[in-house]
Every structure is written in structure tokens, then in C-alpha cells.
Specification:
Elements: H1 3-20, H2 26-44, E1 48-52, E2 65-68, H3 69-93, H4 98-125, E3 132-133, H5 134-160, H6 168-186, H7 189-213, H8 218-243, H9 245-248, E4 258-259, H10 269-274, E5 275-276, H11 278-296, H12 298-308, H13 310-315, H14 320-339, H15 358-368, H16 373-396, H17 402-420
Parallel strand pairs: 1-3
Antiparallel strand pairs: 1-2, 4-5
């Protein structure tokens, strides 16, 4: 074919490619729903809201801010509506505005998300004699999210290597149990940080043994191990721990908050991010390091190869089953470390079923985050914030039924996973044993 013919066909090929490019209406629909929610609360709310941006551990004193709830919510709704219009224009343009358009998309997503969050808080505090404790709610969000983030990171690593880790719930429970027992026995909270991931790794080794070595269905093995963890912790709690509570199950040895000078005094976000225990700081590091190493290292490449195409990985000399086994154990240790937050990380003694289904929520966060550490972080924080708000609402409006309030986090999780995950694709070879 001549150069002239190729040149004449080039614009047609580009045009055809643009026509075939799939248009996703997920973001415009999300913005529209946020706008409708803000319009609804703005039109129905009455009274003023009092916002408290101070934290009792901070030296900086900020007076409470009183705002007209309806007026500020209408402003939020108008901004969200503008964001919706931009989202529609950006979607129809099919990337016509280039990097500038993508930058505006990101700014709008962050802005509309924050306005929706704070709009709900203002709505919750309208007409109440109490104050919306913004900083305390954000601190609670981090506390609630930490075990979920560790659990979802565990799921990301194990599923990327091809093993479905339904056992996150049991690993969180085992980590909470081993963490407080070791801390109480050795009278040192940091010993709990050592034994908690070992407990998770023990369950992970059982998961790897049956699912990788013997090819048993990974979901069935995970469920069985969850029951095993619940049964063992219930038995030892009712016998060993109850009989020796002062020695094996005391909350006297818990992780203390480590205040980072200067940064912890930043209004609103300072106490949330920079006045936490070492376990939270480890969580920050885990998210960053896994985001880098899973996608930018030889280890990450081998990990993903075993989860996507194990036969091809085997062809180039990677021991697939050994890679799956070691990374499943490593992933399980992350979940065990997260379980320690329920006890030594929160200053609590162990109780029966203290994980309370958080392992399954962590799995949902991993799926919502599309098997990426940063995405899993965002989804886990979303659930943590919803639960923190659910804890705040009764102090503002005591007449709301507690059962209805407790449903909020789970309803939000179901809506997010069912409605906004889209056609996410898990690793191709997960739950498929590689048996030579």
C-alpha cells in the first residue's frame, strides 16, 4: 500500500477508534446522585449546625462554628450540580481536553466527595443541641479503618498471586487473640505486634497447604478456617483466658499514641493522621510500599504472573506453587497484624468474635478498590467513615433507632460494591490450582 493511501486512511482509523471507545457513565451518575442527595437534605433541613474542629489533645484552640444548615447545603448542591454538568461534558468529549480535562476530573471528584461528606455531617447536626465533632469523627474513621485496610491489603496480595483469601475474618480474629495474649503475658504491647502476624501466618499456611498443595477449593478452605479460628478463640477465651484474665487478657498493655511534633497540631487533620499508634503508621507504610512493589518490582511481577497466567510463569522458571504459598502466608500475616488493632491497638481486652465480620467487609473493600492497595485503602476508609458517622448520630439525635443507624455502614458497602464497582476483572487464575 502506498504512503499516500496509508496517510488518507489514518484519520479514518483514528475516527473509528474514537467511535469504538466505550463511554462510561459511572462518574456522571455518581455526581448526579450526590447532587440529588444534597438537594434533598437542603430542602428538608431546618435549624443551624454547630461544627467543632477542635481536639482535646491539641494546644490550638478553635471556637465552634455555627452555620445555617439549609444555606450551606444549597451552596454544596449547586457546586455538585456544576460538577455533574462537567462530568457529562467530559464523558462525551472522550478525552478531548487531554491532561487538563483529567486534572479537572480529579479535582471535581475530590470536591464533590468532600462536599457530600460534610453536607451529610451538617445535615446530621442541624437543629441539635450537640456539636458535630468533625475532628473526633475523622480520628474514629482512621481507628475503624485500620484493621479493614490491613485485611484488604491481605486480600490484594493473596488474590494477585491467585489465592482467594476468604480467611481474612479468621486471621483478624486470631491476630486480635494472639496480640492481647502475648502483650499480657510478656507485659509488653510490642510483643503483641510480633505474635499477631504470626497467628495470621499460621492460618495462612493452612490455607496454602490445602488450596495450593492439594488443590482444594479456596473458598471452601477459607470458610472452614474461619470457623476453626472462631471455635478455637471461643474455646480458649472461655477457659484459658477467663481463668487467667489478669495474666493473659488485660488491657493494661496497649499501644500508646505517638504524636508527631508540629504535624499533629494541624487543625482537623493533624490528630487524625499524626497522633496515632505505631500500628497506624505501619499501615501507612504498608499501603505505600505495596503500591510500589506490586507494580514496580520483580517480586510484584512474579506475584501477578502467578495470578494471571501461572503456566506462562512456570515456563520462564518461576516456581508457581512456592510463590503462591509464600505470598499467601505473607498476606495472612498482614491480616493478623491488622487484627491486633482490635485489642492492643484500641486498649481493649479480647471478647468473643471481636472481629465482628470486618474480614468480609475488608474483602468487599478489596473488590471495590479493584485489587489495588490505594483503591482498597479508599474503600476501607469509606466504610470506616460511615461507621464513625453512625456512632456520631445518636449523640446528635437520640430519637433515631439504633438498629437503623447501625445499618448505615453495611448499606453503603452493598450499594458501593453492587452499583459502582462496574465490570472489574479479578486475577484470571484465582481459585484455579496449578497442579503439574
Amino acid at each position: 500500500m502506498s504512503v499516500e493511501a496509508q496517510t488518507s486512511q489514518a484519520p479514518q482509523m483514528v475516527e473509528a477508534k474514537e467511535i469504538q471507545q466505550r463511554v462510561s457513565w459511572k462518574i456522571p451518575i455518581t455526581f448526579l446522585l450526590a447532587t440529588i442527595l444534597l438537594v434533598f437534605v437542603a430542602s428538608t433541613v431546618e435549624g443551624d449546625s454547630r461544627l467543632r474542629l477542635n481536639d482535646r489533645n491539641q494546644t490550638i484552640n478553635i471556637d465552634d462554628i455555627t452555620v445555617n444548615a439549609s444555606g450551606i447545603l444549597w451552596v454544596f448542591a449547586i457546586i455538585a450540580a456544576v460538577g455533574t454538568v462537567w462530568a457529562v461534558v467530559s464523558t462525551l468529549s472522550r478525552g478531548k481536553y487531554g491532561r487538563v480535562g483529567k486534572a479537572i476530573d480529579i479535582v471535581m471528584m475530590v470536591l464533590v466527595g468532600l462536599l457530600t461528606v460534610f453536607g451529610f455531617l451538617i445535615f446530621a447536626g442541624a437543629g441539635s443541641s450537640g456539636a458535630v465533632t468533625v475532628t473526633s469523627t475523622l480520628v474514629s474513621t482512621v481507628a475503624i479503618s485500620t484493621p479493614l485496610i490491613f485485611g484488604s491489603l491481605s486480600g490484594v496480595v493473596s488474590e494477585r498471586v491467585g489465592v482467594i483469601n476468604i480467611n481474612i475474618e479468621g486471621q483478624l480474629l486470631a491476630g486480635a487473640f494472639a496480640g492481647v495474649m502475648a502483650a499480657s503475658y510478656f507485659q509488653n504491647a510490642y510483643m503483641g505486634l510480633l505474635f499477631a502476624p504470626l497467628a495470621g501466618a499460621f492460618l495462612g499456611s493452612l490455607l496454602a497447604l490445602f488450596s495450593v498443595r492439594y488443590g482444594v477449593d479456596q473458598i471452601i478452605v477459607g470458610v472452614v478456617l474461619n470457623v476453626l479460628a472462631l471455635g478455637l478463640t471461643t474455646f480458649f477465651f472461655g477457659t484459658l483466658m477467663t481463668e487467667n484474665q489478669s495474666l493473659l487478657n488485660t488491657n493494661r498493655y496497649s499501644l500508646k499514641s505517638i504524636k508527631i511534633p508540629g504535624l499533629s497540631e494541624i487543625p482537623v487533620i493533624g490528630p487524625m493522621l499524626f497522633n496515632q499508634s505505631i500500628l497506624v503508621y505501619i499501615m501507612y507504610a504498608a499501603v505505600v510500599l505495596l503500591s510500589i512493589f506490586i507494580f514496580r518490582s520483580r517480586w510484584g511481577l512474579r506475584l501477578r504472573a502467578c495470578g494471571e497466567h501461572p503456566k506462562a510463569a512456570d515456563t520462564v522458571g518461576i516456581n508457581v506453587n512456592r510463590t503462591r504459598t509464600l505470598n499467601t502466608i505473607f498476606a495472612s500475616s498482614l491480616a493478623g497484624l491488622g487484627g491486633a488493632f482490635f485489642t492492643i491497638g484500641s486498649g481493649l481486652a479480647f471478647t468473643n468474635n471481636i472481629s465482628s465480620g470486618n474480614g468480609y467487609i475488608a474483602l468487599a473493600a478489596m473488590i471495590l478498590g479493584k485489587w489495588h492497595p490505594v483503591g482498597a485503602l479508599g474503600a476501607a476508609v469509606m466504610f470506616g467513615f460511615a461507621q464513625a458517622v453512625a456512632q456520631l448520630i445518636p449523640s446528635l439525635h437520640s430519637g433515631i433507632p439504633s438498629d437503623l443507624v447501625n445499618m448505615i455502614p453495611y448499606v453503603i458497602t452493598i450499594i458501593a460494591v453492587a452499583g459502582f464497582v462496574g465490570r472489574s476483572r479479578p486475577p484470571a487464575a484465582e481459585n484455579i490450582p496449578y497442579l503439574k
